[in-house]
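lol forgot to send this yesterday, sorry. struct tokens for the thing we talked abt
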């Protein structure tokens, strides 16, 4: 499904749950990748098993065939416009968890409040550019700290983009491997499924 945004059409790939729907998970891709990334597909599988419909969102720049990401403000605007239309057309008042991998996780964090998210799922959150751990001006930690709903971060223990610290309402799950999170996809599915199950049981 294509959705018109202020910055061109976005594309949504919907994967409904096989059971009764109790919520939805909206996921965005990384800066240079697509919605077929292995960690996104593993999270999709876990969410569907937990009773959530999943909607994988391709940003307009990717739909247009560009690999270089759009500026953050454009990414955030397009994301919120897609979320708003999904709410109008299919989600209604269902609880919505937002998330994504890498750049998509940053978008989900920055827009969580405006999008009315119940929680945020971050796969390989890029805490800082590689090699810039000591430069506080390059840290993306303020984007995480600004989120007021529960957050799960699944991070490779050798991720060159850094390891986010624990914080209030923030759960960190480390896995073997790097930024791709491909080394332990069953472990990723398990971590995401357990976290979503606890959220749903607690009525978050």
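and heres what i got for the seq, position by position
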């Amino acid at each position: 499904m294509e959705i018109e945004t202020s910055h061109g059409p976005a594309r949504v790939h919907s994967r409904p749950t096989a059971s009764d729907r109790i919520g939805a998970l909206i996921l965005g891709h990384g800066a240079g990748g697509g919605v077929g990334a292995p960690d996104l597909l593993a999270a999709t599988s876990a969410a569907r098993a937990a009773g959530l419909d999943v909607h994988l969102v391709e940003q307009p720049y990717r739909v247009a065939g560009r690999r270089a990401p759009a500026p953050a403000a454009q990414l955030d605007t397009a994301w919120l416009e897609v979320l708003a239309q999904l709410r109008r057309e299919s989600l209604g008042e269902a609880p919505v968890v937002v998330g994504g991998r890498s750049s998509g996780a940053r978008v989900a964090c920055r827009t969580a409040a405006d999008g009315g998210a119940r929680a945020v799922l971050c796969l390989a959150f890029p805490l800082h550019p590689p090699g810039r751990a000591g430069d506080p001006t390059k840290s993306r930690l303020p984007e995480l700290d600004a989120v007021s709903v529960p957050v799960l971060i699944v991070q490779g223990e050798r991720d060159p983009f850094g390891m986010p610290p624990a914080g209030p309402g923030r759960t960190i799950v480390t896995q073997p491997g790097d930024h791709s999170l491909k080394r332990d996809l069953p472990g990723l599915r398990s971590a995401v499924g357990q976290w979503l199950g606890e959220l749903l049981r607690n009525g978050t």
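Residues 122 and 153 are 5 Å apart (CA to CA). anyway ping me if u want another try
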